[in-house]
Amino acid sequence: xxxxxxxxxxxxxxxxxxxxxxxxxxVIYRNINVVAANVINNTSQNTTITDDQGEFQIYARKGxxxxxxxxxxxxxxxxxxxxxxxxKRLTVQINEKIQELDEVVITPDNTEKFLDLKEEExxxxxxxxxxxxxxxxxxxxxxxxxxxxxxxxxFKLLKTIIDSKSEEEKExxxxxxxxxxxxxxxxxxxxxxxxxxxxxxxxxxIDSRPNSVDILLEKNQFLLIxxxxxxxxxxxxxxx
Length: 240
Fold this sequence. Notes:
Layout: H1 2-17, E1 21-29, E2 32-33, E3 38-41, E4 46-49, E5 55-60, E6 65-70, E7 73-79, H2 82-87, E8 89-93, H3 108-115, E9 137-138, E10 144-145, H4 151-163, H5 167-171, H6 175-182, H7 185-191, H8 199-208, H9 212-218, H10 221-238
Parallel strand pairs: 1-8
Antiparallel strand pairs: 1-2, 1-5, 3-4, 3-6, 6-7, 9-10
Helix pairs in contact: 9-10
């Protein structure tokens, strides 16, 4: 019975897609391939995801609504046109989500109330500096850099290194050749939570990851650090 239901489902899917063309496409963000993005034909309810090159295949016809979504990017909707059907190709540029902080407004009234606190109100309390608590630098909601990172210096070093390379040198560039110049060992052991013995192996692993060099060429220290945080999680899962 289960086999019959599956066969019927596949037959209906095939019949429904007979009048649709197979469209090949690619999802990118600032020339970087977007991996594992959801691609949904909202008209036919067919779905797929992008591969490690940011590419996908999906059946569509003129007028179909294709939705592209990923956790850290803004949802993008594309209406299939005659040109897309003719070329059987679709490249979609998506934008990163920007989380805005709630605005804090200080009015003269608020300021006066704050300044009205008198010294007597604090008598009886001893204030001791808590030297055991380290300042944490939050990069994302769920991941934290435990040691201080000089973002300005990283940007300057990264820009200097990339700008000094010729176009030919950039084509053969390896991330493992650049990253050690940007970060001390403490970054790997305290922020990425890697063992000292894993640092070299992790850098070799980074070289094997798609877009590692493209991210360096972006010369964006925040994008690079977020990439390293994500990849360190994957690396540790693989080596558990």
